[in-house]
Amino acid sequence: MSTSSSWSTSAADALRVGPGFRLADIDPRSTPGYDGDKTAGRADLEAGRAPLEDLQERLFAQSVAGTATGSVLLVLQAMDTAGKGGIVRHVVGAVDPQGVELASFKKPTAEELSHDFLWRIEKRLPDAGRLGVFDRSHYEDVLIGRVRSLAPAPEIERRYGAIVAFEAEAAEMGIRLVKVMLHISKDEQRERLAARLERPEKHWKYNPGDVDERQRWDDYMEAYQIAIERTSTPIAPWHVVPADRKWYARLAVQQLLIDALSDIDPQWPAADYDVEEEKRRLAAS
Amino acid sequence: MSTSSSWSTSAADALRVGPGFRLADIDPRSTPGYDGDKTAGRADLEAGRAPLEDLQERLFAQSVAGTATGSVLLVLQAMDTAGKGGIVRHVVGAVDPQGVELASFKKPTAEELSHDFLWRIEKRLPDAGRLGVFDRSHYEDVLIGRVRSLAPAPEIERRYGAIVAFEAEAAEMGIRLVKVMLHISKDEQRERLAARLERPEKHWKYNPGDVDERQRWDDYMEAYQIAIERTSTPIAPWHVVPADRKWYARLAVQQLLIDALSDIDPQWPAADYDVEEEKRRLAAS
Questions:
Q1: Are B126 and B72 in contact (CB under 8 A)?
Q2: β-strand partners of B237
Q3: Which residues of B touch A279 (CB under 8 A)?
């Protein structure tokens, strides 16, 4: 955004999945579109807080005024430790919590399982004028769902089309989807899990199940490849964000959000009352 | 908390409502318990971010580990412009959004009105391990409810007792209530409303209804006096926070939250798995 930033290509253009996309070709340590180093990246992240806050406040103002028609929905998917929590905390956490709707999707409950996989998702779509965040999402149902055969193969197959239709409908309602896969390497994940095991105050972040899933790394990468290929559409494209460098991933997602909000270009709502008359009433009160 | 802070008395002790409490005796420009000026106050607010974040993360860790038994619920009540939004943004906004449950209570819907006034409130009580925030609350039903006679007088009367019983039950469930009235003066409100009318990008924050309520200022102060008197209990006391100085109000609420969390004293959850065994499994994966 600012002239001093080190983006040579916009984050959206550098990260958007295109034809012939191969996840295996993307280096998790790379910094697509960005020429700066960690120091520059951190400075740019700091510099991006104000425009993100401003755009989000304008959108929120519209929701209060009842004039909002659009919203933004950040969908975060990733292998464990890739940094979803850090994005929520350091990128989304910079804006006014009043305008944010955060939904964390855990293992489905019995009730959720008794419905179509999109049932619990639809209920959490952001209201107009809000910034929604999905920490995991309907994609779990074609990721762990596929890797662990949690549904019959034909049902998994059906879901790709169902997701495309669902997201097209959401877009039609004015929801701007920002779909992000945080892409870490298997080695980097080992290091991050090991760090959690080393420090007692991080033990709560570790789950033996993480290693079980890790042992199916290649299956997961294949499931991501297929899911991304089949659900990346012009209206709801995927972005694969290399995430071995946390500073880059945060900066990139911040830029994607700024882009999406700039695209809505929310204006401050006009007063729906007589400003001069209200000044008089107020002065007399 | 830190030795360099300018608190002579803890915020909780300085602000807790006691016997013989008179709202009219509290100066909205005062800074009870705090000897520092605005510059010191801002520095102390900044210094309080880390301990608040740390305590909240410990509590959240317990909720993830399934060992949390307690939670904190900040109840914010105030006249318009007193700064509830600023508290949410600058105090609560400093902690990890994943552990926060924010509920804004607007004018009740038809469905909500068809139930007891506590029906919509109960549903939004924070889960164990969370920091809940009520931006307005069940107290509206004895504030605007009383001033505007939105319910018959005997029903309003009944509500004070119902609130005391409800909050005792919530406390029993492990919810630590931090009830805060942000107390501004009528003059300060005029200035803040006038500022909103002066700047087009603030027009959305102004509502002609604000002046209608303002014209009943004395009735509101009386309703607050009665509500605070009748619902301040040892387990769920009220705190009246002078709010003409925004920096003081934010600092004071931050301290109240730190106190409440310190009182829970959440410890990092112990691993429920064999750490050494997991290190081996991870290394081999």
A1: yes
A2: none
A3: 194, 197
User: Chain B interface, mutation test: which of A81, A105, A192, A197, most B Cβ atoms within 10 Å?
Assistant: A197
Q: Give all strands of the β-sheet with B175-183 in edge-to-edge order.
A: B100-104, B131-135, B71-78, B175-183, B238-242
Q: Quick one: pLDDT band at residue A5, thresholds 50, 70, 90?
A: confident
What chain A holds in terms of domains, given with CATH numbers, is 11-266 (3.40.50.300)
**In chain B, which residues have their Cβ closer than 8 Å to the Cβ of A92?**
97
Measured between CA atoms, the residue of chain A closest to residue B135 is A98
What value does the mean pLDDT take over residues A4-29? Answer: 93
CB contact under 8 A, B98 and A96: no
pLDDT in tens, B247-268: 999 999 999 999 999 999 999 9
CA–CA distance, A111 with B104 (Å, rounded to integer): 27
* Mean pLDDT, chain A, integer: 96
- Report residue B192 as tokens: 């803040």
Q: Which residues of B touch A89 (CB under 8 A)?
A: 96-98
Decide: residue A239, CB within 10 A, 0-12 exposed, 13-18 middle, 19+ buried.
buried
Find the helix or strand (DSSP H, E) in which B34 lies: none
